[in-house]
User: Fold this.
Amino acid sequence: MTGDVAVLGAGMRPWGKWGHSFVRYGTLAARAALADAGIDWADVQSVVGANTVRGGYPGHVAGATFAQALGWQGSRVTSVYAACASGAQAINTARAQILSGLADVVLVVGADAAPKGFFAPAGGDRPDDPDWLRFRVLGATNPTYFALYARRRMALYGDTPDDFARVKVKNAAAGALNPNARYRKAVSAEDVAASAVVADPLRLLDICATSDGAAALVLSGMDFARRHGAADPVRIRAVSTVSPAYPRTVPDLPDIATDSAAAVGPAPVAFRESIARAAYEESGTGPEDLSLAEVYDLSTALELEWYEDLGLCAAGEGAELLRDGATALGGRVPVNTSGGLASFGEAVPAQAIAQVCELTWQLRGTAGDRQVPGARVGITANQGLFGHGSAVVAVR
Assistant:
């Protein structure tokens, strides 16, 4: 137990394809978070930015980028990169600064103006780059990777394309209620089945799009929050950023191989399961305490995997949990009440921050038509390339 930090403000703008700079999106989200917190920009002591990247390489030092856009005022600046987990790493960095006494108030920002279509590697020959290798040598694009996971679930557990379609239907129903979502339209299983095959068995509506988007948080110490008049704020209680352990019995791209299982025994838990477990241990909570979860639904099949990794059900039971309605709005543990990436699309530096925005609004009781009644504990789950994973536990 390392101590709570308060979420004083959460800010977003609607995601989509707007044709503007990521700096504009991030600045708008930051101003919204500051307004929500009732904090003047001049009072922010540190800015932590999740880097906007292209093809796996940092493209902009986001902390300084947003501090400059808001107007230099002497704050500390920090920039982090952890692929799709960059936003959670930024939250963790801000949290460490607060708990160590380096800052009372920290602004966390992530934003992107994503290229059209599926992500591709940066140009040039880089044979020592595993991300380049998996694209150029294996031909393993992101949709191929998602499809391999789907096929694995079908082979091991008997999941079907109809099960995958149910995930999209559920998330689209939640996204239709979210004013910040890019796609705000209900989708039927028939719509999913009628969409084009991208990587068998997954169709276009099984896979998230790329988007322009931004999200921001204002975090503070608990003493500052009370002095600021926030007697009972949403609190971040744990941030897990653990790495994999060898041997990895199920390779996660871009890792193509693992070390020898003959020399090293299997890890007690798989990588994604270990991400959530570390967050539960740090926060003193467990899956039985959850009111809701926001998970990284790059594809419909991967969402089912997260149910099991979070401990909401046993391995192989994710589809059954979905069919029972447990993860839908009104269910036992709603998952992706925001609509998930299915409704937002990917804006890499922003998405893990956006997940915590959703937890904040749910735990405050201000999520409108998608509100989970009496929400008290929420978790996010996220995974990025190169062994980056994250989970954030927030409580009220």
Observations:
- The radius of gyration is 20 Å.
- Residues 13 and 29 are 6 Å apart (CA to CA).
- The chain is about 35% helix and 20% strand.
- The mean pLDDT is 91.
